[in-house]
Amino acid sequence: MQVLKGVVNARDLGGLPVPGNLRVKEGLLLRAAHLADATDADIRYLSGLPVVKVIDFRRDEEKKGKENKAIPGAEYISLPVDASGNAADQAIEQEKRKFTRHKKFDIRKIIVMAAFNEKARKVAASMYPTLVFDHECQARFSAFFREILATEKGAVLYHCTQGKDRTGIASALILAALGASRETIVADFDATNRVYEADVRKYSRRVRFWGGKEEEVNVVKSFMGANTENFVKTLEQVDLQYGSMEAYLKGPIGLTDADIQALRQRYLE
Q: CA 142 to CA 146: how far, in whole Å?
């Protein structure tokens, strides 16, 4: 996939290796951040692939002032995934308004604010286990696979706000379904940190300027970058609870052997 000028953290799962001397086909499974800032050239390129389905994991408040630009010929699917879990549910109304009252959703400002918020620190620590083990998140990722399985031709582009956590978990599940090794799954997840490395440094300095210590800076690292160490621990929890990623996919995600075979026939070469 060519470099998109207005879409951050965009990449193709195509080319990633799968045991058996196989690899993921190029131009069919695309992951990214939101499409609100896509250039006209970006849209023309994506339309030409063609992208026939865009799956958006963002919640409504994340879309304020950041609505996706439309790709001609593509169907838009909203599958909001809440990675905050019970920690956010416990937040008082004043805290909720603080994070959602803005007319335009600015993830960077919100992350700096969140670094000093106790509930946000809990969310940062529990984000990946929530995405994988929370029943509502599992239902969303199950629906995500249903959308992919229903797309027999053309490319699927899936994204959240930054294209890292929810999108990263979705990518990990797809790669696991395709039979990719744990090494490949973790490497794809960690690639996000090269994209956001400068932002993590910048906003960590800002949090320290306002008196933040390592605990607060870790929130920036988790929300602005991808916490690969926590991701690996979450995969290990899956192994302990279900025995393997494939068993997890056949369990709460609801894939059948036929589904997995269909995915491999369609997306591997």
A: 6
State which amino acid sits at residue 245: M
Cα–Cα dist 142/35, whole Å: 23
- Tell me the whole-structure pTM to 2 decimals: 0.86
Q: Which of 4, 19, 7, 40 is nearest to 176 (CA)?
A: 19
For the chain, the maximum distance between any two Cα atoms, rounded to a whole number of angstroms, is 55
Measured CA to CA in angstroms, residue 213 lies from 103, 208, 219 at distances of 30, 6, 10
> How many other β-carbons are positioned within 10 Å of the β-carbon of residue 44?
12
Find where tokens 């995405």 sit. 131
- In whole angstroms, give the CA distance from residue 131 to residue 78: 17
Convert the pLDDT of each residue in 102-142 to its tens digit. 455 566 667 777 677 767 777 777 889 999 999 999 999 99
Tokens of 19: 């045991």
Q: Which sign, positive or negative, has the C-alpha torsion 115, 118, 119, 124?
A: positive
Identify whether 50 is preceded by a cis peptide bond (ω within 30 of 0). Answer: yes
For the chain, domains (ranges, CATH) are 11-267 (3.90.190.10)
